[in-house]
Design brief:
- This is Tetrahydromethanopterin S-methyltransferase.
- Keywords: Membrane, Transmembrane, Transmembrane helix.
- The chain has a domain of 32 residues.
- Helix content is 89%, strand content 0%.
């Protein structure tokens, strides 16, 4: 039973993280797409790879934190 408050806190944090990711997806990515239109194809691919690595890194850190808590 002592785990319930911790689980509730984790769930609330994950909901906050989820809403932040949604905000990033809705606000930043269209802005980035409009700003990267002037880049050539190679630069766009590099930018997308870097963004993908950054998002993957953030998600992996969140996963490691959640694993450590359980």
């Amino acid at each position: 039973m002592p785990y319930e408050p911790t689980l509730e806190r984790i769930e609330k944090r994950l909901e906050k993280i989820d809403t932040k990711i949604d905000l990033i997806m809705t606000n930043c990515i269209p802005t980035l797409q409009s700003k990267t239109e002037y880049l050539d194809g190679r630069q766009q691919i590099i930018l997308k790879v870097v963004l993908g690595i950054a998002i993957g890194f953030v998600l992996s850190v969140i996963g490691i934190i959640c694993q450590g808590l359980f």
